[in-house]
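TICKET: design request
STATUS: open
ATTACHED STRUCTURE:
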């Protein structure tokens, strides 16, 4: 198992970031074009919450079908963080933790920690995930600086 850890300082209040984290559209925006997530049941307005599970048609680089990716939400709390157990047939373990730490009223430290297990593919997935999470955090900053509402 390998672990990716990326942190950034976001120009927004902790509660604003948490509010945006609850929307599927936020994930779809920050992941594109490295990855796309389309709900298996065509739900566009789902809300992340504890003890929920979702399935998505997943594509790499918005082009390459990568099967169905499942996300089980274990914890979704502004203070304790967000923890999901995810995976698909190619990457059976993708455990994702998001930690939000208030710096001041309008600044938050955001951290992604992802445990990856994909057998012989683990190193390749780990390398892709490092790029993916750097991309996600750049997109988050753009979203927040431009105050884009999804």
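STATUS: resolved
RESOLUTION: sequence designed for all positions
ATTACHED SEQUENCE:
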């Amino acid at each position: 198992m390998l672990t990716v850890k990326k942190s950034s300082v976001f120009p927004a209040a902790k509660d604003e970031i948490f509010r945006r984290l609850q929307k599927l559209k936020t994930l779809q925006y920050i992941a594109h074009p490295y990855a796309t997530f389309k709900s298996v049941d065509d739900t566009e307005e789902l809300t992340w919450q504890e003890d929920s599970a979702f399935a998505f048609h997943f594509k790499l680089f918005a082009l390459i079908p990568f099967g169905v990716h499942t996300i089980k939400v274990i914890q979704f709390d502004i203070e304790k963080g967000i923890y999901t157990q995810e995976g698909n047939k190619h990457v059976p373990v993708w455990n994702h933790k998001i930690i939000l730490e208030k710096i001041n009223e309008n600044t938050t430290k955001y951290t992604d920690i992802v445990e990856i297990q994909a057998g012989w593919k683990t190193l390749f997935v780990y390398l892709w995930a490092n790029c993916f999470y750097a991309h996600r955090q750049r997109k988050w900053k753009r979203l927040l600086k431009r105050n884009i509402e999804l």
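CLOSING REMARK: The longest helix spans residues 122-145. The helical segments are 14-21, 24-31, 122-145.
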